């Protein structure tokens, strides 16, 4: 009997030991990813092969109930290497984000085994090969982003079976062939621009009433554009071989680029085409002139870095050496990244005298004029001095780099304080938000109306409004469009950056003005009031509007103030001030730039001067416009093209 008990005890001990030493399959899969990505010894130190449970590892989240890995986020860390096929073992993984690294190789077909996956983001890597057909197994996938890689071959038809897909982004690859007929079952947002896609646009696309954004620019598509596509809120068919068919009363241009409501397709097309033709003529002349200069041996200036650690003063500005900024940022370490936008990354740095700074490393630096032109633009920015504008300390140039140096803002940006609150940090209270609204308005008013020449910001949003030690608003990133290749920056802004912030006329024509900034300011006010992002796919799950502006407009019409205001405020706000801010925001975001106020007018309205009169006038116009749009939509749905065209032409003439 004793021998039998000893035997049972030994078996139990052996079983326990085996369960202890056998590695967790999830940990094995993740550790194989760590090895395949060429991670340095200082990165992901806690991803230890000897540690069985990966739920305590950094950048990994698990379901608390069963310890299944549900999220792996390793974005913008600077990894190289390849993707491990063993990652396909994570059957419960819901989010995989590896964007902004230097990953090469192919996407493993085993990723098709990630049957719980909801978000897959591999944007901005160097992946090549085909998109695995096994992706058709990812029935729970909502967001697929493979932008800016080197993926080739055709788009697999299996993607058409992903009925839950909300956003499909395959831009800036080398994909080719016909677009699969049923691919556009994607509900809201799709971007296939900058590929080598050919053939015609599938007719099935015309039946999608819930399509919000369609980007097909810079492909080799041909044939007729289905008429219903012009009811899409934002579309871009430029640089293809397409035609508009017979829906327009004049010949159709080859470049079609639009942003408009579903109820006004014809008017948006007419305006967009007229402006587009003008831009084409201007671009043609510019390209001809540029080509002649190149043939004459025009070369970019080459200049050297400031030697050693020597600083050179240019009036108020300091020209830093590359070496000094390299040391200040620990060789531009990813752990010092404060943020990233359309103009480049921002790093926290500490100078040799212990001064904390923010160093912006500009992208798209190759610009005619070289060092001298860059210095002129930098000096122009430095002259703009206002309490609500971020002061430029200095700059640095080398043959391959352009850097700007600013004071470090301890309280970061308004966007950080609204949406990236860490445990224990206080919520941005209402008086501070009101103060931010006033300060930002005054800073933009100064740029537009008191600088000579005036400065257009072009990217006004909560992420570009910083907070000083007193939580006073400080507008940053102004004037940067002058310092980089504007053509590249515009593309970046449209495709990657700030959907929902950009004024309709800037999106459709590429032209910006002070009224473009007014639109962005209005959207920023809505960010302050709601605390929400300007584009939120989760709202679609409640059959709500994707864009914050549309969402607030609807709630304002329904007089649901409680549903608009940020829940984090816990009812601690001034109702009259909130209503005032919403009204100003909606006046600033009118579709026509001519209808928007100047920033000086915005400041006056925030102070209570003239808001009531302007709001009443806007409401009357808005009601009439909405009724007329509904009539146009009904006629359009019934196929009364001739009537629609006449009304559209009449509207165009009145505008």
How is this structure best described in words?
The protein is an alpha/beta fold. It folds into 3 domains: 21-279, Leucine-rich repeat, LRR (right-handed beta-alpha superhelix) (Alpha-Beta Horseshoe); 300-408, Phosphorylase Kinase, domain 1; 418-609, Orthogonal Bundle (Transferase(Phosphotransferase), domain 1). The protein contains 16 helices and 25 strands. Strands 1-2-3-4-6-8-10-12-14-16 form a 10-stranded mixed sheet. The protein has a 7-stranded mixed sheet with strand order 17-18-22-23-21-20-19, with helices on both faces. Helix 7 (430-449) runs antiparallel to helix 10 (514-530), helix 7 runs antiparallel to helix 14 (599-606) and helix 13 (575-588) crosses helix 15 (611-637). The longest helix has 31 residues, at 265-295. It is globular and about 65 Å long. The protein starts with a helix and ends with a helix. The model is unreliable at 1-5, 7-23, 245-255, 259-271, 286-315, 484-497 and 640-655 (pLDDT under 50).
